[in-house]
Design goal:
Length: 317
């Protein structure tokens, strides 16, 4: 990997170029919240630093877009030829020596993402950036990273289904809520979640203060990253609570009587202490017989009893 010359990595020139190029590039990004605003935003780059020198080089930029932000972008900088895909291309920057370099979205470059993973594994600090791998973890160094196309608010890069790097597009001051959630799950123990392998953050003395820029997590096959798993489990728990509430809400006597069997009535399985009944007999059981056939009753069946009298099993017992 041949290093780019110092003029090519002149951060002041790149910062000025980003402020001019990003307003036209941002509206096409799914993670940009102001893409429907109509007018291009005014971009102010607050932090720009070199993560990995070379050709291509890797830079990190944290910038404001109008009143919105801050946002984060990982930038690749390389000479000709043009990057393999035009989709992540931000623009071309002319160097003082007459040669040009290209600025592009680095998460779409598997080579750069693999180099970033090796840098995370090494740990330590580079300028305002802190790379903090978890103690005792073994990262899949040397594996290229493939960016996911499914997310909207962040960008995830998978490394051979062994690790997933989540680039947080809108870094918040202090610890990210996702980092706090994963830490709490790890402390609780016994809760299935993807292990936190490393994090990348800015130091408190940086131009943007202390912010979490990226999280490296264990990749859970066929289920995704830790945040998705936690959200899915919380959603399932809330859905179960809603179903239980809907079964107990309202008074059955206020409902309109139905014919037998009432529409939507779903008999439950008999309790272990209930006498055995045939399916045909259970289907004819009214509210009087219900406690011995099912643990809980149905208001629609209760209305049927009030309207039509006792059921077949009641009349024969």
């Amino acid at each position: 990997m041949t290093a780019l010359s110092d003029p090519a990595l002149d951060l002041a020139r790149i910062r000025a170029a980003l402020d001019a190029l990003l307003p036209a590039w941002l509206p096409g990004r799914r993670w940009y919240a102001g893409k429907g605003a109509g007018s291009p935003p005014d971009v102010t780059t607050r932090l720009l630093d070199v993560v990995l020198p070379g050709d291509p080089a890797l830079l990190v930029a944290v910038f404001d877009a109008g009143a919105d932000g801050p946002y984060q972008a990982l930038l690749g900088v390389r000479r000709d030829p043009v990057p393999p895909s035009a989709e992540p291309l931000i623009g071309r920057l002319e160097s003082p020596d007459g040669s040009g370099v290209f600025l592009y979205e680095a998460t779409q470059d598997p080579e750069l993402m693999g180099a970033l993973l090796a840098r995370i594994a090494a740990g330590g600090r580079t300028g305002p950036l802190c790379f903090e791998p978890a103690p005792g973890v073994e990262l899949p160094v040397g594996t290229p990273g493939v960016a996911s196309t499914a997310e909207q608010s962040n960008t995830s890069v998978a490394f051979a289904e062994r690790a997933m790097l989540k680039v947080l597009r809108r870094p918040v001051p202090g610890d990210n809520p996702e980092l706090e959630l994963l830490t709490a799950l790890r402390r609780a123990g016994g809760v299935p979640s993807a292990a936190l392998l490393a994090q990348v953050r800015t130091s408190a003395s940086s131009a943007v203060g202390a912010r979490t820029l990226a999280l490296l997590q264990q990749f859970v096959r066929s289920r995704g990253d830790g945040w998705t798993i936690a959200v899915d489990r919380a959603r399932a728990c809330m859905a179960g609570s809603a179903r239980r509430s809907s079964r107990t809400a309202g008074s059955p006597r206020r409902r309109t009587p139905w014919g037998w069997p009432p529409p939507g009535c779903t008999p439950r399985s008999p309790s272990s202490s209930a006498p055995a009944r045939s399916p045909a007999r259970r289907a004819r059981t009214c509210w009087t017989c219900w406690p011995t056939a099912w643990p809980r009753g149905c208001g629609r069946c209760h209305n049927w009893r009030r309207t039509h009298g006792r059921c077949g099993p009641c009349r024969t017992t």
